[in-house]
Design a protein that fits this description.
Length: 262
């Protein structure tokens, strides 16, 4: 099976560790992963703001970059949803029959990470170890557009050392919504505050989700409230093992010692 990683713009620019975690995880499970260098934005920001014609070049680049792969895996329900559902709209509007055909062929092969693990590889126990108390936020696109259901929870429940606590109002939007957070800032902040309040009620150390865009918004609210709760992507938890947890602890201990010396 030829598998490609669609890392997404936000991970490429701000969260490279998430993409690296996906590669480590899949390779640990025996999957060889390629990273097509030609990939760019999936075009979702343009589509969501009504610029469908401007999204055509992005969709064309997408199908060219990922052509020939048996599966395309992404650590983002949002971008996966765009590829599976929005690309066909853009292609039809373009009037380019070849682009329509290419999108129709590729779209069913694009998977959000938890879908690929559970549905394609048939695993829920990926050999992960993460000794922390976490709560899971199902992002809107993964929940409503893709219908990933309980796949992420099943994966988290199989992680050794992890305590998974239910999040009140889990299915409520965090308020990010891409450009929504810019155009409707007051509403976005209020929704984020509600989500943060529910997260703090769980007593969790971390809030986990499958989209770093939502975690950026939630994490910003939690940080401003000095809550001590840290956002973490699902891929990073699933890629963790005893060895990586120990390495992280050593790094943290070294940083604490250096700070004390100062």
């Amino acid at each position: 099976m030829r598998v490609a990683l669609m890392v997404t713009c936000i991970n490429e620019a701000l969260y490279p560790r998430t993409g690296q975690a996906v590669v480590r995880l899949l390779r640990r499970l025996g999957v060889e992963v390629d990273f097509p260098q030609a990939q760019t934005c999936c075009g979702q920001p343009m589509v969501n703001t009504g610029y469908l014609d401007e999204a055509v070049p992005a969709v064309r680049t997408f199908v060219e970059a990922f052509a020939g792969y048996d599966a395309v895996v992404s650590p983002s329900g949002s971008c996966t949803g765009s590829a599976r559902h929005q690309h066909s709209i853009v292609a039809r509007r373009s009037g380019d029959a070849d682009l329509e055909a290419a999108v129709a062929d590729l779209a069913p092969k694009v998977y959000e990470l938890s879908e690929f693990l559970v549905d394609v590889l048939g695993v829920t126990d990926v050999g992960a170890y993460y000794p922390h108390r976490v709560t899971y936020h199902p992002t809107c696109h993964s929940l409503r557009m893709l219908g990933v259901g309980d796949r992420p929870r099943r994966l988290l429940e199989s992680v050794r050392g992890l305590t998974l606590v239910d999040l009140p109002g889990a299915d409520q939007c965090c308020g990010f919504g891409g450009t929504f957070a810019v155009k409707n800032a007051d509403t976005s902040i209020a929704m984020g505050a509600d989500k943060a309040r529910h997260i703090k009620e769980t007593g969790a150390e971390m809030v986990v989700a499958g989209d770093n865009s939502c975690l950026t918004h939630i994490g910003g609210v939690l940080s401003r409230q000095r809550s001590g709760v840290r956002p973490v992507h699902l891929a990073e938890i699933l890629a963790s093992t005893e060895a990586t947890v120990d390495e992280a602890a050593e790094v943290d201990a070294g940083a604490d010692a250096e700070g004390a010396a100062r």
